[in-house]
User: Fold these one by one.
Assistant:
Number 1:
Amino acid sequence: MAASGAPPFRHLLGIAPLETGEIEALLDTADGFVELNRRSDKKLALLRGLTQINLFFESSTRTRTSFELAGKRLGADVVNMSVGVSAIKKGETLIDTAMTLNAMHPDVLVVRHHDSGAVALLARHVRCAVINAGDGSHEHPTQALLDALTIRRRMGRIRDLTIAICGDIAHSRVARSNILLLTRLGAQVRLVAPPTLLPAGMDRQYGVAVFHDMRAGLEGADIVMMLRLQTERMQGSFVPSLREYFHLYGLTWEKLETARSDALIMHPGPMNRGVEIDGVVADDINRSAILDQVEMGVAVRMACLDHLTRHLRAAP
C-alpha cells in the first residue's frame, strides 16, 4: 500500500487479500497514531465531514469502543447502531439493511456479525468502505493487525519469532487472522490445543506446527498468545470440564517455564481467569502485553480508517 493516494482495496474484510507491503504500511501508519494517542490533544481532522457507522450484530466492548474512539479522534461523525432494537430484529434481511444504509450515505461501515461471510455479503451491496470487526469463526483482521503491532513494538520484529497460539483454535476468528498475518510476516507459528479444538489439517493448510501437549508447544516460544473458549459457538461438549481444561491447557508459570525466559504473554480478551490463563500470569507487568494490545487497537483502527478513506479525501 502506498504511503499516499488511493488504497488498492475498497474494504478490509480479512487478512488473506492483503499483500505484505499493505500490512506493513498499515502497521507503520498505526505506529504514528500510537504517539498521537499518548498526547493530551488527541484530535485530528483527517476524517472531518465523513460518517462512520458501527453496526454490531454481536455485543462487544473493546472492539466497538476502540472503533468509536478511532473515528472520533480522526474527526469523523461516528454513529453506533443498536441492532438489538433495530428493524433487523424484526425480520429485516442483510440486503434490506444494505439498502437502508445506502440511503444514509455513510463513508465507512464497521460491521461485526455472528455469521461467517455476512460482512462480505453486506460489503457487496453497500456503496461505502466496509471493515470487518469479526464475522463468526471466520476472521477478525484488525485484531491480528493490533497483535502484530504489539509484537513489533515490544520485540522489535516479527520475522523468525516463534509464536504459540493456544486454546480454542476451532472457533476462533482471531486465530485464523493471526495465522495468516504472522506467517505472512515471517513468524514461525505453532498451534497448541486439544484435538477437539483444533481442526485436522491446519498444519498442511497454513504451514504451522501443531501440538496437543502444551509444555511441548511452548518450548522455546518467544510469544504465547492465549485464546478463550468460545462457548457461545460450541454445539456440544469439547472439553471434559473447565477445571480439567485449565489443568491441561491453562497458562500457568509452571507451563511457561518451557518458553523463553522473556516470552511475551498475549490475550485478545475478554479473559476467563482460571480457565485459559492464571490471573497472576495475566497481570505480570513485565511479561504481559495484554493492556498493550488494548492500546494498539485504537491506533490500528485509526490506521485502517485513514487508509480506506484516502481516496475520498483526495477527491476535489
Number 2:
Amino acid sequence: MHTDTERCVRAVQSKDARFDGWFFTAVRTTGIYCRPSCPAVPPKPENMTFYPSAAACQQAGYRACKRCRPDTTPGSPEWNARADAVARAMRLIRDGVVDREGVPGLAARLGYSTRQIERQLRAELGAGPLALARAQRAQTARLLIETTSLPMADIAFAAGFSSIRAFNDTVREVFALTPGELRTRAARRSPDAAPARTPGAITLRLPYRTPLTPSNLFGHLAATAVPGVEEWRDGAYRRTLTLPYGHGIVALTPRPGHIACRLSLTDHRDLTIAISRCRWLLDLDADPAAVDDRLRADPLLAPLVDKEPGRRVPRTVDAAEFAVRAVLGQQVSTAAARTHAGRLVAAHGQPVDDPEGALTHLFPSPQQLAALDPESLALPRSRRTTLTTLVAALAGGALSLDPGSDWDHARRQLTALPGFGPWTVDVIAMRALGDPDAFLPTDLGMRRAAAELGLPSTPAALTARAAAWRPWRAYAVQYLWATDSHPINFLPV
C-alpha cells in the first residue's frame, strides 16, 4: 500500500487508525517516522515519504515518533492472510526464528536460499531479515525498559542483543533517547504505573484494529479450556505457555480499544515470542474492515455482521497442541474433549507453579507424547491410531505446523494421516495454521446456522455459495456459529 501515495496522504491527513501497521510515514523535515493516526499536525504532503515497515524507516535514518510510538501499532494484516514466502517469513521472524537460528535457519525453514529470502523481503518490505529482526528487538527492549525494573544489562540480552553496546546504540538510534531516558520518560508519563516488581511479571497493552467483538473470541477459549492448562478467572483468559527458553503464564483481558496482557515468564528472552503468540491466538492483526465489507455484501450475512462487527478467529499459541486437541475432539462433545485433554495433561504434562490461579501444567509436547501407551487412552481404537500417528509425525519432524508452514502442503500431509477427514484438516487449518479462508461446510453447527438463515445446508451447496466470501470464509464461520446458543459464543460471567 505504501506505493499508493495519494491514498497514504489521505489516511495521514484524516488520522485514520485503520491503516496503522499497513505503512509508516517518514517526515523529511523532522527525521521521524509515525503511524498514520499520529495526533500531531500532519506534515505537508511534499515532506512525506512512505515505507512498508518500521525497519525500512530505521534503515533510511528516521527515528520513531515519541508521541504516536509507531512500534506499538498492530502488525500488518497481510502477513496472516497470505501464504507466500514473504508472509511465511514474516510470521517466522515475528516468532523469533532469526534471533534463535539466524537468517540461514529462516531460509532453511522456508526452503529457499538466504539470498532469495533477502531479495524478496527487501523488495516488499524495504529491509532484510536482520533489519526486521533488529526492529523487533528494539520494540522488545522498549517494553522491558518501560514495564519492568530489570537492570539494563539484563534487558539487553533478554531482548536478543548480542552486546550491551549494540543495545544502547539501537535504542538511541530508534528512539532518540538512551535506555535510561526512556525509563524516566515512561515513569513521568504514567507515574502510577510503576514497573512490576514480581519476578518475570510484565503488564502491557495489545493493540488491535477496531472494531473487535470479544464474545466469541474469549467465549470459545473459555468454553474449550483444558483443565490445568487454561482457565477463565476474574474476567481474564489465563493459560500456560511453552516457550523456547522456558515457560510462562499469560492473562488476557478484553478492554475497550486494547487487550490487557499480563505475562509471567521464567526467562525474559521469551517476551517477543510470547507477545507474538498471544496476538496470533486472538487474531489481533486482522483487518476487520476488509473482512466485514466482503461478508456484508451477502444479504443473508449482512445482519450478522452489522449486529456484532469485528469478529476474530480464535486461534492457538501452539499448533501441535491444537492438532492433538482436534483429534481428541473428533465426534465428541466439548465437555468430553476437555476431559480427554485434561487426562493427557495430568499424565504427561510438565507441572508448573501458579500462585495467582489454578493452572498446574504445560500441555505436553509431541516428544513427550511419543512414548505414551495407546492402551492408556480412553478412546476408540481408530482414534488412538489417529492420535499416535499424528504425534509420531510431529515428534519426528515429518509434519510441521509452525508459523512458516506452507498451508497447502500441511493440508496434504494431514489428509494423508489415518483418521483425518475434511473437518479435522480444516479446523486445524483455521485455528492452528491461521488460514483465513479455511471453511467447515460439514460442521453440524454450520449446517444448522445455514438452514436457519436460508443458506444452503448441504456441504456442496454451502461451499458453492461461500465462494463469494473468499478469502475470508474462516470469519464467515465465526458469524454463522454465533447464531447458536452454545457457550463458545458468550463471554463467561
Number 3:
Amino acid sequence: MVEVLDVHKFYGSLHALRGITVRVAPGEVIVLVGASGSGKSTLLRCINHLERVDRGRILVDGHLIGHREERGRLVNLPDRIVAGQRTEIGMVFQSFNLFPHMTAAENVMSGPVHVRRAPRAAARRTAAELLERVGLEDKMQAYPSELSGGQQQRVAIARALAMNPKVMLFDEPTSALDPETIKEVLDVIRQLAHTGVTMLIATHEMGFAREISDRIVFMDQGAIVEEAVPGQFFDHPQSARSKAFVDAILAR
C-alpha cells in the first residue's frame, strides 16, 4: 500500500532523511520510533507530500505521490492534483487543527462536503457514525473550545476517517495531551488497527508501540537503523544504537 524508496530530504545543509526505504502492506500497522529529531515526522510529512522529497520516490497504492515520471525523470505534479492525492492519505497531527468556528460534526463533515462534494445529509450521517465510533456521539454540536484535548484529537481522527483514506498517518497523536486523556486516544487507534486500516504511527508511547504494531521501524539521525517485529525489537535489539534506545526506555 505504501512504498518509500530511497528517499532523501534536505533542509539546507541538514540531511533530514538519508535514503529511507520502507514498504507497508495493506492493513499493516507500522510504528516509527526514535528520539526527537530522528526524522519520523519528516517521513510522515513526505508520504503526505506536505514536504517534497529531494531524491527517491513515494508510492501509495501504486501511484507516485507528488510527481509523475517522464523519460525516467520525476516531474512535479500541479498543486490541484497533489491535493487530490492527499485526500487518499489521512493524517492526524500533534496539534488537533480543528476549525474553531465549526462544531465537531461540521469539522468531520468538512472534507466530504467541500472536497468530495458529498450531499450534506449523507456527510452528516457519516459524521454521526464516526463520532460514535470514537466515543463522541454526545458531542456532535460541541465546538472545539468546549472539548478536552483528548476529545479534540478524537474528532481529528474522525475527520481524517471521513475521507475514507487508503492509509492513515499519525504524527505523535498524544504528545500534546495530558496523561489522563492519552489513553482515550490510544484506545481509538487500537480499535482502528483491528479494522484493517493501513497505518503508520510515530509515537513515544513504547508500550502502545509494542502492543499495536506489526513492525517497529527504529530511526536515528534520518536513517532506519533497525526494522523488526515488536517482540524482537524490544527484547533482542540487533544494533548497538537500538539497544541503547531500548535500555533507556527500560531504565525510566
